Amino acid sequence: xxxxxxxxxxxxxxxxxxxxIAGILASLxxxxxxxxxxxxxxxxxxxxxxxxxERKVYGHIAAFRxxxxxxxxxxxxxxxxxxxxxxxxxxxxxxxxxxxxxFGTHNIHRLPELLERAQSGERVVEVWDEAQAGPGEDHRDxxxxxxxHNVKAFVNVIYGCTNFCSYCIVPYTRGKEHxxxxxxxxxxxxxxxxxxxxEVTLLGQNVNAYGKDLGAEITFGTLLRELHEIPxxxxxxxxxxxxxxxxxxxxxxMAELPKVCEHLHxxxxxxxxxxxxxxxxxxxxxYYLQLxxxxxxxxxxxxxxxxxIVGFPGETEADFEETLSLVEDVRFDSAFTFIFxxxxxxxxxxxxxxxxxxxxxxxxxxxxxxxxxxxxxxxxKLLGQELEVLVEDVSSGGLVGRTRSNRQVHFAxxxxxIGQLTVxxxxxxxxxxxxxxxx
Length: 439
Ligand code: SAM
Ligand code: SF4
Ligand code: F3S
Known about the structure:
The chain is α/β, with parallel strands linked by helices. It contains 14 helices and 19 strands.
């Protein structure tokens, strides 16, 4: 029995890619291990969105040289977004000579052959710029998957991104937008529900662009309506939506389809129009606020979350205060906050007016403080409420599940409830977690 150690960094697309990689490795007779020393194959599925995690990859993998010396047949691999950038690939090849196998985000289905070649001593590098698949085609279709959860599952609907926000590396690492055929998405969701899954999260960097490349009368809204018909499916989530492309038909679908959960992740990035323009986001603060109103009107009580970047080049104190005031206006349920990280090859990295590190840090602390206060207030309001919870797993002696608004709840109960919808009364609320009891 061979063992693999798989480390996953980055977004849900990478998490799901790792489920496919785990499936392929299982079909090759590999078992997972958490112990590096036990592994015959160490693989890092990497993210390029910010610099720090990339640096960590170099640090970690450099340290594996000793493992390789002790066990020469060990295969060390890097996949995911880092090798998709030419400079980074060259740097990996040069700085990490003991890495045997490098493949990109479009080459996952080729892993069995690539791994075999690496095992026989070849240094294997295979990174395609694009999926090399026809419209609607998906090389991942039919590949085995080892899913992390038994109750909820990720389902890809669209790969890539062609938005080119000026700070973002993703369009360069994941290639152009490429939708899966609706019938293939439907088949996967149907198979999942037949296997007992209750919830799906539809994945794409910009799900609102779904269908545009298929040349048919299909949008993300129509896809939601089609999936909604699948018996046994209880909940549908999706991520991520681009505010610019969030059209009436999607808002209507969210309002009309009971299986679509009342949660929307709608990254705004910044509150100042000048910065939004420089980010190439394609909307203004006023447009975003109006969109939020529309969504809240259509889906009362919806939970709204966002992504925010501080310290984008040229961001003044006044610009940053506009981000703070937008956060106060919208009152997001929660937010992922990021310090701008210049990514080589993106327009923002070449802008001359970079913000000093200490200013970025000071701003992010202020932003986090404000958002935490607002998140905490949202959570306090849930005290005493009875909420529908999909029970996912056991956790520290009890059960854990999520509300429709995607909040995690811990409560006591029998393990036979796992996979069921139940109602939980909230008894304790802190900024990030809820406790409750079966109602
Ligand atoms: N496609 C999604 C969207 O449009 O919002 C998310 C893509 S990205 C993987 C997730 C988040 O990382 C972005 O929303 C942005 O806030 C952040 N991000 C992307 N590039 C960044 C950079 N260069 N520096 C800091 N944060 C960045
Ligand atoms: Fe990056 Fe913008 Fe595409 Fe999101 S929409 S992945 S932030 S380029
Ligand atoms: Fe990172 Fe690639 Fe996702 S850059 S955020 S893993 S698409």
